[in-house]
Amino acid sequence: MAGIVVVFDFDKTIIDCDSDNWVVDDFGATERFDILLETMPWNTAIDKIMGEIHSQGRAIEEIGDCLTKAPISPHVIKAIKAAHALGCELRIVSDANTFFIETILKHHGLIEYFTEINTNPGFVDDEGRLRIFPYHDFTTSSHGCGLCPPNMCKGIIIERIRASAFSEGKKHLVYLAKVHEWSDGEELEKVLLQLINESLSADRCDNIVPLRLAADFKCHTVPLPSSPGALPKALPVPH
């Protein structure tokens, strides 16, 4: 085994768009979604807009079809498969949701390459309506990070993954978030494989191969807290 854990973001990293915006725009709900964002957090607004789409008679299969058309670079697909073939353990930390992520990964035959998906729960209820809930239930307590959105602190999740991985003897962790070291999937592939090769050849005590993170609308700069606290369980990926 390579002893390397690679943690991917999903939106604008694995796929070349924001999955929430991709669906909202495709269903002509952009203006309505922007109005909702004036009075509620992103995660709450996306759940509400999915309810409104359902009330218009749109089927969950239509959302699935829309997701399968989300752009993904063939170079990203190659990078995922190459990293897995080298023995890396691949995980996802994303502010999207399980339904969106799993639908896209399954469509491209990539679900089997990931051991864990950390994201907002998303499922279809008995009425066929897509429900999306926060990873962290901010209505009952705060995750304590003032930089991240109320439904998810990626820093806490990364810290938990790091502690778990290192306790299992893995020496390196590579985190791909939205960064500016590459401009497209081809450059991402080169950067990722270079980092993995450097980690494989280096016999040092460093246990993180850092990438410079950039703040964006949904995912702010990721802090690494000293105490991760209680966290929801990650979604295991069946094989």
Automatic annotation (TrEMBL):
Coiled-coil residue spans: none
Q: Active site at which residues?
A: D9 (nucleophile), D11 (proton donor)
One Pfam family linked to the record: Put_Phosphatase
Q: Which residues cross the membrane?
A: none
Q: Which GO terms describe its molecular function?
A: metal ion binding; phosphatase activity
Could you name the domain of life of the organism this protein comes from?
Eukaryota
Metal-binding among the record's keywords?
Answer: yes
Needed co-factor(s)? Mg(2+)
Signal sequence span per UniProt? none
InterPro entries listed in its UniProt record: HAD-like_sf, HAD_hydro_PyrdxlP_Pase-like, HAD_sf, Pase_PHOSPHO-typ
Could you tell me the keywords of this UniProt record?
A: Hydrolase, Magnesium, Metal-binding
Binding positions for substrate per the UniProt entry: D20, D95
Is Magnesium tagged as a keyword?
yes
Positions with a binding annotation for Mg(2+): D9, D11
Q: What is this protein called?
A: Inorganic pyrophosphatase 2
